Inverse folding.
């Protein structure tokens, strides 16, 4: 059975209100993923936004199955849309040298990709809405157009507790610098959790507020039953277009200036920072090595090194690495050899994942994992799950995690300030504006 397809031409700027209508319409479904580029001019993005709702079939990771192998087989046999997530702890299935022992506070499967009942997307040029569905696309279009064109925003105040306090954080960073000095690793991504318990929120309102405060090119709103994610991620993990693979690790952060002059000074400071360049290039080298395992010899290139990209609260340093996929290799092979992404671990990867397990006091789960899609033709785009809120509606547990790369040159107090800067962009969703 094939999906029926409908294409609706869009008037100029109609796409803006249409996104809100799509989200409001989708709120009736217990499984959905909305991916939004927020009109950022990213060369490698295939759509302005994508919405998948309902699960006609799905593939979920269990402890005993090779999920990536079954994923490749499923997509080869069906050549269908797939949407969903990969949790950070899938690393334990891929490496067998690491073991996550912290307790669960959310209930995401290690990995979950679903073939949706309906896919809606707005093209890159924002001139068309396309609906592909096993149901009647005309009926779906009518329902979307009748949905509210305004997204209601969050208006409740919440106080977040910190699982790691400042003094403990600074002590841990000092210990990690000792590991680096001893030659155990070169760079480690160390993160901390903020949380609120027994809170009753409307996730789509929280996402609407987050999107308004921090529009980002890899934003997403995800519901899987009672589990929700509201993400303002600025980072791509990887994308595949034909046989070309592109990864875009982000390492290096500085706060935006208060005016255009301060802002330009901040960008130049980030661009010329030896410390931030060192953080970035270590992950570029790691990603080159990861991609080389699934790409043809001699095709790995660094297309951009130390690019400076601006977001509402911060400037970020981003690099781009590309390669050509080996014959008979698929997205499953790329994931197997590159997950979890180096920007969220550090280098060397196995050792720093062991140190992360030792020093972090929470289970990452979907944080520093990925959400995204695989299209029927085998192309894909996956983000890095950062700058995100996670909500378990059954336990009323709300959380986020933030952190950064620790190198030997890291100043513990400055690292704490960077962590709090990232956390503030999430916490202010629940503050008075």
């Amino acid at each position: 059975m094939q999906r029926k397809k409908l294409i609706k031409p869009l008037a100029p700027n109609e796409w803006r209100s249409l996104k809100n209508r799509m989200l409001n319409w989708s709120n009736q479904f217990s499984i959905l993923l909305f991916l939004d580029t927020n009109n950022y001019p990213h060369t490698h993005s295939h759509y302005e936004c994508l919405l998948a709702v309902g699960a006609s079939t799905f593939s979920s990771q269990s402890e005993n199955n090779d999920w990536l192998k079954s994923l490749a087989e499923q997509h080869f046999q069906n050549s269908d849309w797939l949407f969903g997530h990969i949790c950070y702890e899938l690393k334990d299935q891929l490496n067998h040298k690491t073991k996550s022992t912290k307790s669960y506070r959310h209930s995401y499967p290690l990995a979950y990709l679903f073939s949706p009942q309906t896919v809606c997307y707005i093209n890159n040029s924002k001139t068309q809405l396309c609906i592909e569905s096993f149901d009647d696309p005309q009926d779906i279009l009518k329902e979307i157009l009748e949905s509210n064109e305004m997204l209601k925003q969050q208006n409740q105040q919440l106080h977040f507790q910190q699982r790691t306090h400042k003094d403990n954080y600074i002590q841990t960073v000092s210990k990690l610098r000792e590991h680096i000095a001893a030659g155990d690793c070169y760079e480690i991504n160390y993160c901390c959790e903020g949380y609120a318990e027994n809170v009753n929120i409307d996730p789509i309102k929280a996402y609407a507020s987050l999107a308004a405060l921090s529009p980002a090119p890899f934003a997403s709103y995800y519901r899987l039953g009672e589990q929700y994610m509201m993400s303002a991620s600025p980072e791509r993990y990887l994308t595949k277009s034909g046989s070309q693979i592109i990864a875009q690790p982000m390492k290096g952060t500085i706060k935006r200036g208060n005016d255009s002059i301060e802002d330009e000074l901040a960008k130049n400071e980030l661009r010329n920072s030896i410390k931030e360049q060192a953080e970035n290039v270590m992950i570029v080298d790691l990603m080159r090595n990861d991609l080389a395992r699934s790409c043809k010899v001699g095709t790995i290139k660094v297309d951009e090194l130390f690019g400076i990209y601006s977001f509402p609260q911060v400037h970020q340093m981003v690099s781009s690495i590309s390669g050509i996929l080996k014959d008979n290799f698929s997205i499953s092979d790329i994931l197997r050899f590159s997950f979890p992404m180096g920007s969220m671990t550090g280098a060397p990867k196995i050792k720093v994942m062991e140190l992360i397990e030792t020093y972090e006091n929470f289970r990452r789960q979907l944080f520093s994992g990925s959400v995204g899609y695989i299209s029927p033709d085998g192309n894909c785009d996956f983000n890095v799950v950062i700058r995100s809120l996670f909500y378990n509606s059954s336990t009323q547990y709300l959380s986020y995690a933030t952190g950064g790369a620790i190198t030997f040159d890291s100043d513990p107090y400055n690292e704490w300030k960077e962590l709090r800067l990232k956390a503030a962009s999430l916490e202010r969703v629940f503050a008075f504006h």
About this structure: The chain is about 30% helix and 30% strand. The chain has one domain: 4-430. The first strand starts at residue 4 and ends at 9.
